[in-house]
Amino acid sequence: MFGILIWSMTCMLQDQFIWSALWFAVLLNFKHIYLYIAPTYFIYLLRNYCFKATGGSLQWSSFSPFRLITLGFVVIYVFALSFGPFIYLKQVPQVLSRLFPFKRGLCHAYWAPNFWALYNFVDKTLTILGSRLHLTTGTPSAVMTGGLVQEFHHVVLPSVPPVVTLLATVTSILPAMYYLWSKSKGPEGFVRAVVLCAFGSYLFGWHVHEKAILIIILPLCLLVFYKREDASIFLILSTTGHYSLFPLLFTSAETTTKILFMLAYSVFAFSSLGYIYKSNWSWWSLPLLNSLESLYIVGLIPLEVWNSAIFPFLDFSEQFPFLPLMLTSVYCSFGIVYSWIKFYKITLFDRKLKSQ
Predict the structure, then answer these.
(1) What distance in Å separates the CA atoms of residue 44 and residue 215, rounded to the nearest whole number?
(2) Residue 58 belongs to what H/E stretch?
(3) For residues 227 and 286, what is the distance between their CA atoms, to the nearest angstrom?
């Protein structure tokens, strides 16, 4: 399905707008998680296919109703083929209940490393401190770290309903959508908006799966040769994001394999991009990263040593089985949030990008 995503984006970059819309509609019907980036497609197609721009300025009088109808027909046709049998059998409510399972709770059993993981961690920390200091009543709830897929309530911080995550997600992507509409940067701007839209949905969405990080990483690959800063963010995000998937390969037989694959990929990525941008390895920093960023990435090593080689042999490992998962999620959250902020900054404020 990622192949279909890249295919659709490639069609867009080549101004094959109808084909891009077609393949993205197909992709949505394969996996609705790509709805995260649908706003980018809508805005870009509306601005660049239904309107014309002269010298970067949008010509409102150039709006083409025929082109809008054509786009609508393509999308509706794909959805009709997909949902037609369910409509005929009157099973649409059942389909929608499975597509949007709001009863599953704010976070997945393994917290995706996003803003809500940090929120949960703060609530958990305050709960334990409050219990030790006799500031909270009752027994601290452990349901957030119980490994169950269900709704739960925070103990100290306010509980988060789905509408709050929706508002947070929309707020996080609005600057990117405004940037795409008012300051269209052509194909590069489209890719940047896709990445930012995926970022916002991942960081603030409801019941986000950890695998959704790949929806950010893969489109970002298309930008690594544009600017040095893009390559730097890619190295931080891909290294952190790929490591955050380690808990999905949880058996001891998989430990060596996943570590070797991760190590091989990281060495290749840092070496190749460092060579392109003439940034070498040093004792104080990794290629394209500053000292603090390098320290953060290197910090993944002791974290993995603790998770795989030390924690399983401790006396309390069976009592707190979720601890390695929580540490991984929280640690990776910092790197992903940092990458989002840095990418937003260079996208919105880099004057080197020319309007098209």
Answers:
(1) 18
(2) strand 57-59
(3) 17
